[in-house]
């Protein structure tokens, strides 16, 4: 297996941190199609990939054996799905993370992505159960990339992007070194995940940026052979990556997935995603919220009468769910789909939404 030590293996590992050159930097169609897939074991998730990745079952077996006591309250299969992503083997064109990211970066990915649906469902569930990072992280490449990143422009990285929380990792001779043409990206992230406890190479302090993450180019510093490009994660008005309903408890302050549920199935789907199951609603009649949020109330009013209500990327909290429960759900009998992705909602907020959905009939 090519996941051990040695210069060749180190070079292969470096590819994951430095493959930024492969990003098309174009706006492609959103990544979707897997959200309603059932959550299955890693062995089942990779079955459709065997014809594409002949060695994947062997590496998945090793990954799962390394995850008998997974960190962060992940299941063994969830943790192993991340470990498998970080593993490298030959030939590289048959290696999981390389082929997956090539597919995600393809303009005609819809059919190519279908064999990946079960794995993406498991992999995304695992990542979404880890706490989000709000800090500076780093990527780099041994090239001058300044002509492709112009200050003020918006770019999207369509593949899952490996980065590090320690810039010295990139500056080491094993990665970029300290001479020749180099570009280091300093990235102010909001939603990346620290996967070092679930990586085959924990010493690299790897942080994983979600596929289809959007950035604004803030600045570009020219220091001779070294260019430093500053990026800031920004939120698109509409999601570019479909997030599945999360099975299992979310970490504190973790953004929950998009909720898209028919009314007759609202109770079970919402509980499955974010809230513990309850035998009976604790709220027979939801009171009008005393707490106020003018921006949220206006957003709800602007979408009154529609069957779909989009409230993603609004930094909503548990208290805000009182408003959503009363104004958006109880008072809007036409509502069939509620999108709350990328907010800060915990179990209490999810319970408010769940109870309100039960009464929205």
UniProtKB/TrEMBL annotation:
Biased segments, Polar residues type: 267-283
UniProt feature, compositional bias: Pro residues: 246-259
Keyword Transferase tagged: yes
Family: Belongs to the Arg-specific ADP-ribosyltransferase family.
MF terms (GO), sorted A to Z: NAD+ poly-ADP-ribosyltransferase activity; NAD+-protein-arginine ADP-ribosyltransferase activity; nucleotidyltransferase activity; toxin activity
Record's keyword terms, sorted: Glycosyltransferase, NAD, NADP, Nucleotidyltransferase, Secreted, Toxin, Transferase, Virulence
Single GO cellular component term: extracellular region
Record field: catalytic activity: L-arginyl-[protein] + NAD(+) = N(omega)-(ADP-D-ribosyl)-L-arginyl-[protein] + nicotinamide + H(+)
Record keyword Aminoacyl-tRNA synthetase present: no
InterPro entries: ADP-ribosyltransferase_ARG, ART, Leu-rich_rpt, LRR_dom_sf
Taxonomic path: Eukaryota, Metazoa, Spiralia, Gnathifera, Rotifera
Natural source organism: Adineta ricciae
Subcellular location: Secreted
Catalytic EC class: transferase
Segments for region (Disordered): 244-286
UniProt xrefs under SUPFAM superfamilies: ADP-ribosylation (SSF56399), RNI-like (SSF52047)
Its EC number(s): 2.4.2.31
Protein name: NAD(P)(+)--arginine ADP-ribosyltransferase
């Amino acid at each position: 297996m090519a996941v051990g030590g040695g210069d060749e293996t180190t070079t292969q590992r470096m590819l994951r941190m430095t493959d930024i050159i492969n990003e098309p930097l174009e706006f492609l169609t959103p990544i979707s199609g897997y959200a309603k897939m059932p959550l299955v074991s890693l062995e089942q998730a990779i079955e459709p990939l065997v014809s594409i990745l002949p060695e994947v079952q062997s590496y998945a077996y090793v990954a799962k054996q390394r995850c008998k006591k997974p960190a962060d309250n992940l299941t063994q299969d969830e943790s192993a799905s991340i470990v498998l992503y970080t593993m490298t083997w030959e030939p590289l064109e048959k290696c999981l993370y390389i082929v997956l990211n090539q597919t995600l970066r393809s303009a005609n990915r819809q059919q190519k992505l279908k064999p990946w649906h079960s794995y993406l469902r498991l992999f995304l569930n695992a990542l979404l159960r880890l706490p989000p990072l709000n800090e500076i992280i780093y990527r780099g490449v041994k090239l001058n990339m300044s002509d492709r990143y112009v200050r003020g422009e918006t770019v999207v990285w369509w593949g899952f992007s490996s980065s590090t929380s320690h810039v010295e990792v990139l500056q080491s001779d094993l990665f970029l070194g300290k001479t020749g043409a180099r570009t280091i990206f300093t990235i102010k992230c909001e939603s990346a995940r620290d996967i070092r406890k679930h990586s085959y190479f924990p010493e690299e302090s790897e942080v994983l940026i979600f596929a289809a993450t959007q950035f604004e180019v803030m600045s570009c510093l020219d220091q001779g052979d070294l260019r430093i490009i500053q990026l800031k994660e920004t939120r698109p008005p509409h999601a570019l990556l479909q997030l599945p309903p999360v099975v299992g408890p979310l970490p504190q302050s973790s953004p929950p997935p998009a909720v898209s549920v028919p009314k007759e199935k609202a109770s079970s789907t919402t509980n499955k995603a974010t809230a513990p199951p309850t035998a009976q609603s604790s709220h027979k009649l939801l009171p009008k919220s005393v707490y106020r949020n003018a921006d949220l109330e206006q957003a709800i009013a602007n979408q009154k009468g529609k069957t779909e209500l989009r409230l993603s990327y609004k930094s909503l909290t548990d208290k805000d769910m009182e408003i959503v429960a009363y104004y958006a759900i109880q008072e809007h009998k036409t509502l069939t789909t509620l999108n709350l992705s990328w907010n800060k909602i915990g179990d209490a907020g999810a319970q408010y939404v769940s109870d309100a959905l039960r009464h929205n009939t």
